[in-house]
Write a structure and sequence with these properties.
The complex is a heterodimer of chains A (523) and B (311). Chain A is of the alpha/beta class. Chain A is 31% helix and 25% strand. Chain A is built from 17 helices and 22 strands. In chain A, helix 6 links the parallel strand 7 and strand 8. In chain B, helix 2 runs parallel beside helix 4 and helix 6 packs across helix 7. Chain B has a single domain, classed as ABC transporter involved in vitamin B12 uptake, BtuC (Orthogonal Bundle), CATH 1.10.3470. Chain B is built from 13 helices and no strands. In chain B, 48% of the residues are buried. Classes of the chains: A alpha/beta (523), B mainly alpha (311). Chains A and B meet through helix 2 and helix 3 of A and helix 7 and helix 8 of B.
Amino acid sequence: MIEKEEQILTAPEEKIIAVSMVGIQKSFGNHLALKNVDFNVMQGTIHALLGENGAGKSTLMNILYGLHKQDTGSIFINGEPVAIKNPKVAIEHRIGMVHQHFMLVPTFTVAQNIMLGSELTKWLGVVDFKRANREILKLSCDYGLAIDTRKKIEDMSVGMQQRVEILKALYRGAEILILDEPTAVLTLQEVDELMKILRSLADAGKTIIVITHKLNEIKQVCDYCTIIRRGENILTVQVDAYSEQQLASMMVGRDIALTSEKKPINPKDTIFEVRDLVVDDDRGIRKVDGASFEVRGGEIFGIAGVDGNGQQELVEAITCLRKSKSGSVKMHGKELQNTTILNVIESGIAIIPEDRQRSGLVMKFSVEENMLLKRYKNPAFSNKGKLQKNKISRFANSLIEKLDIRPPNCAQLPVKKLSGGNQQKVVIAREMSSNPDLLIAVQPTRGLDVGAIEYVHKELIRQRDSGKAVLLISLELNEIMGVADKTAVIYNGKIAKILNTKETNEEEIGMLMTGGGNFACAD
Amino acid sequence: MMNNMILALMGTLMYATPLLFAALGGVVSELSGVMNIGIEGVMTFGAFVAATVSFFSGSSILGFALAGVCGGVLILLHAITSISLRADQTISGTAINFLGPGISVLLTKKLFDGSAFSPPATKLPSIFPQALANRFHGTVFEALNGISSATLFAFFCVFLLWFVLYKTKWGLRIRATGEYPAAVDTMGVSVTTVRYCCVLASGVLAGFGGAFMSLSVTSSFSPVTVCGHGFIALAAMIFGNWKPHGTMLSCLLLGFAMECTTLWGGSNNAWLPVPIMEMFPYLLTIVILILFVGELATPKANGIPYVKGSH
């Protein structure tokens, strides 16, 4: 493999090292999160911190921002040794952090959020909103980050909220900006916008550290990339010199396929059919407005769309978690609409829900209990209401072995102790164990790293190749493009168009997702 | 007629004052994210302290002030358990509601030879100086002399709290702490400090509320002096949407309801049995809670202990 010697320390002499973390060690309880990590970032560059979930990237940055304290090791900012014991000290050293979950008060205005903790005051602590508004506007002009300072956060798009977070750091004079998974929640257009912003900030001399596991974004905008695997710094490279494939392999520690291999499609009869479905949300607002599509055996039917265009309500209506107003949902020709969840399960539908922690798993239950959730009524597992512990364990262990869920002896372990990827495997194991005719997968790879994503996609394709149907609903366009055979684009609760994935491209789907393109009716 | 209206106004103000102190205490605590159902217990303790201190010292103002201090001390227990120890705030508040009356009744019996009542206390002074009050003598304004200086102070507290919460940086931090503490923490402000200050302030205010009950409403302390006013104050806080001015209006409404009970119940030709009429303010509280509780801007992090790094 590549020599670790290829450090950025050998890079051009005139650049200053803005951040230098030396020999950082950190453990949580028995778990050693960071092992003797060195990390150097040059001023005015965009530096990616790449690694799988749980590799320790966020921990390292939380140490830099003073949210955690390292056990051993030292930090230098612009060559000066510093002790960052809390975020206040970090802010004093001109470090700013944009967290993955935004640290914004939804009911406050932009100006109030930006000021919070560093308020401009007149007398007796009275906040000088006029001056603050002026200063924020000036700041937003200087960096080309247009914003309405009087608008409330809860009325803004996620992309704009992130902009507020960036301004919040700049307002405090940040020279070093850390962004934790900044693109996880953004739409395609917002990602492009963010990349431009980051580039212009770096050109203005700011140092930017981006925590991510998205390789295409690293290639797009980053200068350097440090790869962290299981708490160890593997190496730091110049991004230009490596392909996405190479970066992925270094991150995971083995060769990995970024694109899924699929056999040619072999479609069978229609298994599942949705006709003119109309669904309202809790507030009575129409979310699904006459959606129609059908899914055949042996195909993966993808639904692409920007978040909030009715995907959630569509799935809830299909699975009878929510009442639909009109239309029909048929499985094998049998009407399911507005019946019961049990009826849906028994008709041969399995679902990988969007939020595995909230609706996919009971986090405090053990792995085997979670695997039993859908079959506790099965006489094989419960005899006159008494659970058959031995049989359940055998069943769970066979699934754990089959899907290689780690750690290997996790049957009795609470599921919250597992990594995100392994939690998702528990969900998949449970859902696939009933051998469903239709698998509905909603955002099945959300928050997973490359290795786990590869596994989930393989599993979806296996289901398809065995002649069963898959309905894949995802906000990740490249997931739809890579896995789905057919792609329907949902916009404003309507199916804008159904396309053969092979015959389309990201631009066309991207247009349809944002309401562009001509509205051909589905059929 | 004029006389009756002024009397009704007097009664409304009198009943609204203790509610207002206690409800403002609820507002400041809950806006910072600490649920505070212990207000009832703190009020009872404050009522006891005020009555006792004013009896022994002869100064109702000293009694009033010490009731605030002792309220702060008692609520400190709630602050420690719910902020530092991250206990369940409902349970901690309930404990305060047992502890406050418990200590008060015990000490009353110790101090006053086994009696459950304290001797009559001196009223808090009127807002008008004696010279001015004499002028009103015999006019329709005579009743205005009944307005207590503490009532004026309560309304001043409304203004003060509104000013702090909505105009100053501390208010910004308090409200942010109750909505999303992680945002405050990551900006280098201590969530713990903000919450301790707010809970202590709520204890002082609730102590004032209790003091007013025993000094100016019932004129002595007994175990039933406060009788649910702390809970009514919490209802007023909810009805007032956790805003000082909204809370003031709902306290006045509830104060008026109590005054109505007194007016109707006092006349001989009452059209309903008196005990049923006495239920009126409590029924009104329940109705208010049923009608409005779903639509309000409850502070999002209210009642949830903050753990660093959570969001």
